[in-house]
Specification:
heterodimer; A: 414 residues; alpha/beta; Aspartate Aminotransferase, domain 1; 4-stranded antiparallel sheet; 14 helices; 17% strand; B: 141 residues; alpha+beta; 4-stranded mixed sheet; 4 strands; 19% strand; globular
Chain lengths: 414, 141
């Protein structure tokens, strides 16, 4: 496969760090376009995790011995590294979770269950991922709070006029995606934060598809909470980040209880450790933390502005190529600059799962299904869609390979 | 990757594009529907049994979904005509894969067995041995 230089990234050089991309299936080189689901892990990140286990592995916080000190420092500093990456002040604003979903649950349980009641309103969007939709739906059911949804326009944008109507003084929490994992839409989260704050509500931003692909500054957005997943940004699975404003996290009760999150325990009562440790009960995700910090350093070396330009270029190329065909329906905004690096689509007469199986025959890996947005798919009037999602190591040649695979599906089903 | 490429052989595509026994039976002995939420596949099957309610005389289906689920329904409805209810209940996943004559990748097996599950559950409900509104292949594979 001929690799071309991207304006923004030296893709050929980047690909050398990802040996998995050299895999071949029946003689065809893997074309990995399922990055919205999970990204591949570069050697420096794999090495950082392996080095940690080989040289510094120990439990954190409680150990006096040298290894425990080394592990503790590495784990604590990983919080600072990740915090700074998204514009947070430091570890006191960055909790490590299992993933974005757990971050959403943390706030829903620790804050939502305690603070919400009948008459209160939670405002989500129609393009919400199940991570927030299902979580807040359940919190609504348990507290009596109402859940409302900001509609999505036919063009794939949030209806901001409707948002201004829906967010009222009864609103306590607004939870929205920064970038839609289905439509690709980059949402105006700073405007939504202003709307929420005008009514003394908090805003939780799901940045799972944003943090990997564009510069993110939680302070500029003025998010109260902001969450993302490590494995979608070159890091390991099993770790995500939850940013929260320092005073909010400080006031909040814990999510889970156990070791590591306490200051003093008696038979009668317990006091809590400082943030973020208060929210990280039990032995935490130490090796994953080290891995995520290494992923962040890798991304910073590439430059998030460069990554954003690269993604926009790939999304734009995919949109252009797909638009050549009348039998391809594309979902979401038509302008690449309004999108993250993913394109969801359907090929007429070919079910998304059949299409994806046929692409698999050509060693092209994309996703098909409801992408954890079933209500949005109901709105779109389809049961499933195919989704190609791009990352730092992808090329326009690979998008051509995708289109060739689509063409063979078209022929097979003609 | 040979698993996938085998899935769309001519026979499967032919049954998908030209489904057999597609339609309704006016007064079926029983009718039952099911879905595979992963793909959004939906199938309803009407069955007409003989007077002793032992032998399957006619089967018709209608549905919407991926090629594997719809072709499987088309082929299964043909296979079922003349079969006893007991024989039909003995069909399993391997029989369905044999019938399709292609390797079904693990992620798509739910699509393949949907029709089989629907026709079997329908008979169980008719005989009072099961109580469910709709068959789903989400979690039971």
């Amino acid at each position: 496969m001929g690799l071309q230089q991207s304006d923004a990234l030296d893709v050929e050089r980047v690909r050398e760090d990802f040996p998995i991309l050299q895999r071949e299936f029946d003689g065809e080189r893997l074309v990995y376009l399922d990055n919205g689901a999970t990204t591949q892990t570069p050697d420096p990140v794999v090495d950082a995790i392996a080095d940690y286990y080989r040289t510094s592995n120990a439990n954190v916080h409680r150990g006096i011995h040298q290894l425990s000190q080394e592990a503790s420092i590495a784990y604590e500093e990983a919080h600072d590294t990740v915090a700074e990456f998204v514009g947070a002040d430091g570890r006191e604003e960055m909790v490590f979770t299992k993933n974005t979903t757990e971050a959403e649950n943390l706030v829903a349980y620790a804050w939502g269950l305690r603070e919400l009641g009948p008459g209160d309103e939670i405002v989500l969007s129609q393009m919400e991922h199940h991570a927030s939709l299902v979580t807040w739906q359940q919190i609504g059911e348990r507290t009596g709070a109402d859940v409302k949804y900001i509609p999505v326009t036919d063009e794939g944008y949030l209806d901001m006029d409707a948002a201004a109507e829906l967010i009222t003084d009864d609103t306590e929490m607004v939870s929205v995606l920064h970038v839609s994992n289905t439509l690709g839409t980059v949402n105006p989260v700073a405007d939504l934060a202003d709307l929420a704050h005008d009514h003394d509500a908090y805003i939780f931003v799901d940045g799972a598809q944003a943090v990997p692909n564009q510069p993110v500054d939680v302070k500029e957005i003025d998010a109260d909470f902001y969450a993302f997943s490590g494995h979608k940004m070159l890091g390991p699975t099993g770790i995500g980040g939850l940013y929260g404003k320092a005073d909010l996290l400080d006031e909040m009760e814990p999510f889970q209880y156990g070791g590591g999150m306490i200051r003093k325990v008696t038979f009668e009562e317990t006091t809590w450790h400082d943030v973020p440790w208060k929210f990280e009960a039990g032995t935490p995700v130490i090796a994953q933390g080290v891995g995520l910090a290494a992923a962040v350093e890798y991304l910073e070396d590439l430059g998030m502005e460069n990554i954003r330009r690269h993604e926009e270029r790939l999304a734009g190329y995919a949109l252009d190529r797909m638009s050549e065909f009348d039998d391809i329906e594309i979902y979401g905004p038509t302008r690449a600059e309004d999108r993250g690096g993913l394109v969801s689509f359907n090929l007429d007469e070919v079910h998304a799962h059949d299409l994806t199986s046929i692409l698999n025959d050509h060693a092209v890996a994309i996703r098909a299904g409801d992408h954890c947005t079933q209500p949005l798919h109901d709105e779109l009037g389809v049961a499933a869609s195919a989704r190609a999602s791009f990352y730092v190591y992808n090329t326009t040649d690979e998008i051509d390979a995708l289109l060739e695979g689509v063409d063979s599906a078209r022929e097979l089903f003609a | 990757m040979s698993m996938g490429s085998d899935m769309y052989r001519q026979q499967i595509l032919d049954h998908y594009k030209n489904p057999r026994n597609c339609g309704e039976i006016e007064e079926p002995t029983y009718t039952h529907a099911g879905e595979n939420p992963m793909c959004g596949d939906e199938i309803r099957i009407d069955v007409e049994l003989d007077d002793d309610e032992e032998v399957i005389e006619r089967v018709a289906f209608r549905g919407d979904g991926c090629a594997i689920s719809q072709a499987s329904a088309s082929m299964l409805t043909g296979k079922l005509q003349g079969m006893t209810v007991v024989e039909m209940q003995e069909l399993d996943r391997d029989d369905v894969v044999d019938m399709l004559g292609v390797d079904i990748s693990p992620m798509r097996i739910k699509c393949a067995v949907l029709a089989e599950k629907v026709v079997q559950d329908g008979a169980k409900i008719y005989e009072g041995e099961a109580d469910l509104d709709k068959t789903t292949t989400e979690d039971d594979e």
